[in-house]
Amino acid sequence: MLKVENISVAYGQITAVREVSLTVNDGEIVTIIGSNGAGKTSLLNAICGVVPLKSGGIWLDDKKISRLPVHKMVKLGLAYIPEGRQIFGAMSVKDNLTMGAYIQCSRKRFSSLGYVGWFMRRQDVQTNLETVYKLFPILKERLKQKAGNLSGGEQQMLAIGRALMSSPKMILLDEPSLGLAPNLVREILKLIVRLRDEGMTILLVEQDANAALKIADRGYVMERGQITIEGTAKELLGNDRVRQAYLGKSVA
Predict the structure, then answer these.
(1) Does residue 231 contact residue 59 with C-beta atoms inside 8 Å?
(2) Which of 77, 80, 149, 160 places its Cα 20 to 30 Å from the Cα of 103?
(3) Of 134, 167, 200, the domain-final residue
(4) Which range among 116-120, 150-154, 205-209 shows the weakest confidence by mean pLDDT?
(5) How far is the CA of 26 from the CAs of 29, 47, 231, 241, in angstroms?
(6) Contact (CB, 8 A) for 164 and 131
(7) Residues 94, 206 share a domain
(8) Containing structural domain, residue 34
(9) pLDDT tens across 22-76, in order?
(10) 82 lies in a domain?
C-alpha cells in the first residue's frame, strides 16, 4: 500500500531523515522504533506532506504522492494522528469529530452568484460518526463537552476518532501512548489491533518499543535519521541489539 523510497528531510543545514526506504503492505501494522531525536516524527511528517522532501519519493497504492498538498493525500485515504493529539481544545467533541469529516464535503458552484460553497454528505458523515461511537462509547457521552476538558486517554480516542471520520485506508499514528497511564496505553494498543483486524493499515511510531512490537507485524529501527534494522516483529523482539537498546519494561 505505502512505499517510501530513499527520502531525505532537512531543516536548514540539519538533515533529520537520510535516504530512508520502507514499505507498509495492505492490512499490516508496521512500527518504527527508536530513541528521541532519531527522526521518526520527521519521517511521518514527510510521508503525510507536513514537511517537504529534500529527495526521494512516496507512493500510496502505486500512485506517487510526493509533494502533493496535504488535503489531496487525505482524499487518497491517508490520515495522520500527530504526537500530542492536536485536538481543538476549545471546540466540542462533536465539532472535533465533524472537522475530521471535511473531506466528505462536495463542492458546488453557484455561477450566477459567483459563490463556492461546501456541503456535507450527511449520510456519509453520520455513518462515520456511528462507527466512532461504536469504537468509543465514552465520546458519545461527551459530545457537547469541550475537547480540552477530556482526560488524556479520551483525547487520544478523540484524535483517533477524528482521523477515522475521513474514511482512511491507512493511518499514520505518532506516539499514541504519550502521557497516558499504563492501563490506558493497553486499551489504545488493543484498539490499534482491532482497527487492523477490521482492515485498516497502520504505520505506528511508538516510544514503547516492546509494546509496539508485540502488536506489530513488522518493524523498522531508526537511528540518527536512518533505518538501521528491519524485520518481522518477532525477529526484532529476538534481536540482541534491539533488546539491549530499546526493549526495557513495557506496559503491554
Answers:
(1) no
(2) 149
(3) 167
(4) 116-120
(5) 9, 16, 17, 29
(6) yes
(7) no
(8) 1-77+169-252
(9) 999 999 999 999 998 999 999 999 999 999 999 999 999 999 999 898 888 988 9
(10) no
